[in-house]
Amino acid sequence: MKLDLGNPAWRNTLPSTRSVVSDAPVAACAFSRDGATVGFGLGDGQVRLLPTDIKQPASAVAEPVHKGAVLSLIGDPLGDGFVSGGDDGRLVRVALGGGATEIAHQKGKWIDKLAGHRATGAIAASVGKMALVVDKAGDVREFGPHQSSVAALDFSKDGSRIAAAHYDGITVWSIGPSGTAVTLPPRRFAWRGSHVALKWSTDGKFIATGTQENDIHVWRIAQATDMRMQGYPAKVKSLSWSADARWLYTASQPVFTAWPFAGKGPEGKPPLQFGEEGAGLLTVVAAHPTAEYVAGGYDSGELQVGDIKTRRSAVLKMANGAAITCLAWSPDGASIAAGNDTGDMLVIDLRR
Amino acid sequence: MALIASKSAQVPVTVLTGYLGAGKTTLLNRILSEQHGKKYAVIVNEFGELGVDNDLVVNADEEVFEMNNGCICCTVRGDLIRIIEGLMKRKDKFDGILVETTGLADPGPVAQTFFTDDDVKAKTRLDAIVTVVDAKHFLGQLGQGTEAQEQVAFADVILLNKTDLVSATDLEKVEAKIKAINPYARIHKTEKSKIQLDAILDKGAFDLKRILEFEPDFLEHGHDHNHEEEVKSLSITSDRPVDTDKFQKWMGAILQIKGPDIFRSKGILSIDGAPRRYVYQGVHMMMDADWGTPWKPGEKRASKLVFIGRNLDGDNLKRGFEDCLK
User: Contact B61/A129, CB-based, under 8 Å?
Assistant: First the structure.
């Protein structure tokens, strides 16, 4: 779907939005694999499901899936439901009807971050110093321990490897075939400091991290060379690669900020910054699943969508003081879901 | 409309340190099991140690890392940043968070986490470093390593515990030793870690500016005691006004070089031409500063600096500070 941000409609009116309020912060949001449902992980342990079509009636409040807070949520790579992780140590598969099945339970630990891989149906979860991988057959394998807790993880493009971020660098593991205990030795990529965010590029060639020192670090996997982007005023907790892997979008700036990875890469070049300056700093960025658009949420609560080709942006939601905590695109790129730290769940229809 | 000053929304965090067996676990168990109408999250190192199964208890691994900024004492607890971020996602808010450090841990990295991370600073504030001291074994522990001494040096509040196990004379000796290391910490004498929780939690004991609002002569309490101590406090006073530019340069340089040895620093400055006191407090190289209460008309203006640390060179510090005076 094409977004014509030059159309005056984008300047004059906000897009059609469903807003549902919870009294717990929204920790994570995601679309289901088929795009028909949005899931929101809440601080009271609920996974709230809403239809992507905002004209359909909203579902009722659900039973809590976790005892404490939901910490992470992804669309289930194996079906049209969701997978959530919580501070009760449980990794749970949430069916569309609301039924929950436990995949793993690590008492006294937190299931902190999740990643899913659609083609292989695998799920990766960070649990303390370990990374868990649950494959299509339900086989759970552990990778680690890493030198510190795993702060973020992601699958490679083909799903054959996972990368985990921790202190002083990242570790890349080959997952290997289902049911085997044999693990190839991991590859370590070192850079001092604490790495708090990680995204594998959509072409599989790069891994980008955000560090505690407000930098971004990017490794070229094949050559094991690395680069560093500095000058951010805050930690960059959100990174997103464009669908064509030509751009790395980064949060912690007042406008959309994209590092160029086409051709020789970004070394020695400034990033492309575009769009209207928003209120505050971007807390979350998410690239469109197929096209040249990007969505961004601010610490002020503002939401914008940008077009890197025309370098325009449009406001999706005005600032209200509640920081945006999560952001997701529907698979068809026609809807955006977002949540904030005071409990607003938004589903935005971008069709004009 | 009535004007009401409400408490800031930041959750107070208490760092609980103390040598092995001093009584930290007893205190934490009391905090978790007693009916006090408050909700505290407790971050511990060893899950099993606490006898209670409570979802307010979070297990941490004391993961310390060095900031990649060229500062050798800028060590931070990354696990704490992540845990606090996670706790803030919960629906139910906390009246306070307690962070236990292992008996042999340096409280520096925990304290420094609250200076370093913007998200942690936005949601929480360091309320106090509370050190539990074993009255019976403290003097012996001093000989076994640097930890017992450093934990006292870092403290804002000290629970001098197990007082029932020592004679009055021995207790006096222990107290004198504590005061020789750190005369600015408030000492509570306890048996079996029994204390009114509101005497130690949410008192703002770390924040010198807040203390001074209630106790303007707080820094006058301490006198430098025994100059033979390896870890001790040292104070410098002057009634001449301070030149801020010179002071900042000097303090920056001192902390750059001596940061690892300076556990705590705090001070009130009479800045040349400023109507208010300038108040600061620091842990190793990290420092927070703010304007405090105004000087009253006719009040005698004076500056006082306090350092608590290892191998402090008093003469050198005094000379350096004098160069910052008008």
Answer: yes
Q: By C-alpha distance, which of A59, A46, A152 is closest to B90? A: A46
| pLDDT above 90: residue A30 | yes
With an 8 Å Cβ cutoff, is B291 touching chain A?
A: no
Nearest CA in chain B to A112: B86
Residues 200-239 of B with CB under 8 A from A: none
Write the pLDDT tens digit of every residue in A95-142: 998 789 999 999 889 999 999 999 999 999 999 999 999 999 999 999
What is the pLDDT, as a whole number, of residue A263?
87
Interchain contact B46–A (C-beta under 8 A): no
- Scanning B165-194 for CB atoms below 8 A from A yields none
pLDDT of residue B228: 65
Q: Under an 8 A CB cutoff, do B68 and A193 touch?
A: yes
SS (H, E, C) chain A: CCCCCCCHHHHHCCCCEEEEECCCCEEEEEECCCCCEEEEEECCCEEEEEECCCCCCCCCCCCECCCCCEEEEEECCCCCCEEEEECCCEEEEECCCCCEEEEEECCCCCEEEEEEECCCCEEEEEECCEEEEECCCCCEEEECCCCCCCCEEEECCCCCEEEEEEEEEEEEEECCCCCCCCCCCCEEEEEEEEEEEEEECCCCCEEEEEECCCCEEEEECCCCEEEEECCCCCCCCCEEECCCCCEEEECCCCCEEEEECCCCCCCCCCCEEECCCCCCCEEEEEECCCCCEEEEEECCCCEEEEECCCCEEEEEECCCCCCEEEEEECCCCCEEEEEECCCEEEEEECCC
Is residue A77 scored above 80 in pLDDT?
yes
Are A103 and A86 in contact by the 8 Å Cβ rule? The answer is: no
- Provide the whole-model pTM: 0.91
Residue B179 has pLDDT above 50, yes or no: yes
pLDDT digits (tens, 9 = 90+) for A207-229: 999 999 999 999 999 998 999 99
ipTM of the modeled complex: 0.90
